[in-house]
């Protein structure tokens, strides 16, 4: 889930929001201001309902952010690189560039999120009790009680053992510990996720037929999301199993053509380089270490009249924005970094020299070969020696 707006950094972790978060924010604020609060405390000013509803919605999303931030911080402490956090329609997601190194690390990373939500719910519950004993009943008390209930429900929902929920991660950690096989553990959690997703879809359909249309539709949407995400996790696990033990050098496009940083776009397009079957070119200066990379699609954004004065160095993705790897790094380790990268490519470096480019097309080609000549999960070295 890619962010639409960037909010900044918390604890050194980038935080952004997807545009869909505005939908759920509006629904929560509207539901509180127009339905829940007037239903419990009628005859209050309309602006008061909306003020409390909006503030409560903001606090709720702050608690969601705390949930995801906990995942990210614990992941980082366990050696997992974190690309950032994105809040969206169905909550939030911490984008991790690597996978946990052990079942215990997976357990810590997955478990801390629901724990934070539970603590937040209990904290808001204490606040609600304190307000009730001091200020007395009112809109603020109702808002605190709602925040307590929703955070506790969020914690309970998230520990359901079904991918991609945190409970699915906990299930995967347990299965990984029991079997010693991360791929099998992920497939087990994926199956549980699809089963739970279809259960929600059927429950949503039942509620819809019973006349509870809004709740039924919402449950079905969540169910279909869980099915889709769990299926994607399962396919990703199968891919990791197929690629296990294969180094980058076996999949990369070797010896890519480089382009000088001071070449203008017009020269680049008029020269022979464009005739190569490449869509990305490492950019160098005087044949030195790569400065960055230019992809063909970037050239479309440059007006024709400016192409004779704009150089490749002006528009290139800088090196620190590019995923880099080495020829001997396992594909399974570089894949998560590629998937979270802006261009989903990786430059393959031997020291400071460019020796290849790794793209999703390269990965797809290797997977096609692997699934043709050997069964899923077959050991790479065994396959080579045969």
From TrEMBL:
UniProt-listed Pfam families: CBS (PF00571), Peptidase_M50 (PF02163)
Main location: membrane
GO biological process terms on file: proteolysis
Protein's membrane topology: Multi-pass membrane protein
Alphabetized SMART domains for the sequence: CBS
Keyword Cell membrane recorded: yes
Keyword Signal listed: no
Chain sites annotated for binding Zn(2+): 67, 71, 166
The entry's keywords: CBS domain, Cell membrane, Hydrolase, Membrane, Metal-binding, Metalloprotease, Protease, Repeat, Transmembrane, Transmembrane helix, Zinc
Cofactors required: Zn(2+)
Cofactor remark from the record: Binds 1 zinc ion per subunit.
Name under which the protein is recorded: Zinc metalloprotease
Biological source species: Nocardiopsis gilva YIM 90087
């Amino acid at each position: 889930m890619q962010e639409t707006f960037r909010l900044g950094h918390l604890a050194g972790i980038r935080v952004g929001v997807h545009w869909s978060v505005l939908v759920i924010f509006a629904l929560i604020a509207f539901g509180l201001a127009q339905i829940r609060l007037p239903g419990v405390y009628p005859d209050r000013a309309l602006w008061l309902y909306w003020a409390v509803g909006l503030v409560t919605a903001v606090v709720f999303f702050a608690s969601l952010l705390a949930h995801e931030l906990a995942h990210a911080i614990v992941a980082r402490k366990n050696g997992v690189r974190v690309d950032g956090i994105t809040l969206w329609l169905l909550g939030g997601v911490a984008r991790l560039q690597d996978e946990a190194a052990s079942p215990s690390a997976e357990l810590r990373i997955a478990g801390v999120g629901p724990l934070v939500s539970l603590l937040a719910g209990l904290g808001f519950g204490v606040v609600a009790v304190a307000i009730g004993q001091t200020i007395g009943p009112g809109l603020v008390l109702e808002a605190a009680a709602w925040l307590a209930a929703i955070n506790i429900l969020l914690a309970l929902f998230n520990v359901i053992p079904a991918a991609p929920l945190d409970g699915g991660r906990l299930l995967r950690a347990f299965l990984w510990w029991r079997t010693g096989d991360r791929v099998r553990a992920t497939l087990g959690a994926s199956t549980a996720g699809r089963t739970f997703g279809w259960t929600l879809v059927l429950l949503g359909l039942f509620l819809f037929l019973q006349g509870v249309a809004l709740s039924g539709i919402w449950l079905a949407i969540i169910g279909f999301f869980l099915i889709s995400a769990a299926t994607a996790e399962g396919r990703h696990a199968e891919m990791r199993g197929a690629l296990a033990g294969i180094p980058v050098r076996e999949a990369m496009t070797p010896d890519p053509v480089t382009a000088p940083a001071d070449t203008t776009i017009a020269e680049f397009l008029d020269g022979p380089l464009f005739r190569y079957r490449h869509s990305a070119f490492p950019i160098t200066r005087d044949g030195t270490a790569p400065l960055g990379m230019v992809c063909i699609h970037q050239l479309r954004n440059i007006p024709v009249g400016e192409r004779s004065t704009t150089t490749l160095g002006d528009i290139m993705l800088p090196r620190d924005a590019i995923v880099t790897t080495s020829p001997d790094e396992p594909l399974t380790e570089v894949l998560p970094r590629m998937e979270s990268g802006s261009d989903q490519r990786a430059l393959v470096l031997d020291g400071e020299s460019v020796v290849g480019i790794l793209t999703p097309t390269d990965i797809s080609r290797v997977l096609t070969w692997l699934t043709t000549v050997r069964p899923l999960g077959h050991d790479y070295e065994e396959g080579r020696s045969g």
